[in-house]
Write a structure and sequence with these properties.
The chain is an alpha+beta fold. The protein has helices at about 5-20, 20-25, 50-65, and strands at about 30-35, 50, 70-80, 85-90, 100-110, 115-125. The protein has one domain (about 5-125): Nuclear Transport Factor 2, Chain: A (Roll), CATH 3.10.450.50. It has three helices and six strands; from the N terminus they run H-H-E-E-H-E-E-E-E. A hairpin with a 7-residue loop joins strand 4 and strand 5. The chain is globular. InterPro entries: NTF2-like_dom_sf (IPR032710), SnoaL-like (IPR037401). This is Ketosteroid isomerase.
Length: about 130
């Protein structure tokens, strides 16, 4: 059953990211989802993660490495019944590393109200 894309839905997904709730995040993703990370070995798209299992592994690893990672100053836009955009500032300090702060955005694609693609972009602040 399809559900509409709303600001509340995008906030719910983002709240899962801030709680580091991998299962909660992925409950909003389709089984055949794709996440194009902001950087990685596959230029120009960065790292391509396919499916919930791979995305879960990446997220759990990231949260272990950056236990205070959080997304703030969140803004969302709904483009139509299949696309949305989120803008944010992500902050955190990797274990044994220096604090970071990036201005970024996610381009979201949905099918039947479930995330099928999350395409992330960011740039360093400071």
């Amino acid at each position: 059953m399809s559900r509409p894309i709303t600001i509340a839905l995008l906030d719910e997904i983002q709240d899962g990211f801030n709680r580091h709730d991998v299962d909660g995040i992925l409950s909003h993703f389709a089984d055949d989802c794709v996440w194009l990370m902001a950087r990685g070995p596959n230029a120009p798209e960065g790292r391509r993660c396919v499916g919930k299992a791979e995305i879960a592994q990446v997220l759990r690893g990231r949260y272990a490495e950056i236990p205070d990672m959080r997304w703030e100053e969140m803004r969302h836009w709904i483009c139509d019944d299949t696309k949305a955009l989120s803008e944010w500032v992500v902050r955190g300090t990797p274990a044994g590393g220096q604090p970071f702060e990036y201005l970024g955005c996610d381009l979201w694609e949905f099918r039947d109200g479930m995330v099928v693609k999350k395409d992330t972009y960011w740039k360093f602040i400071g």
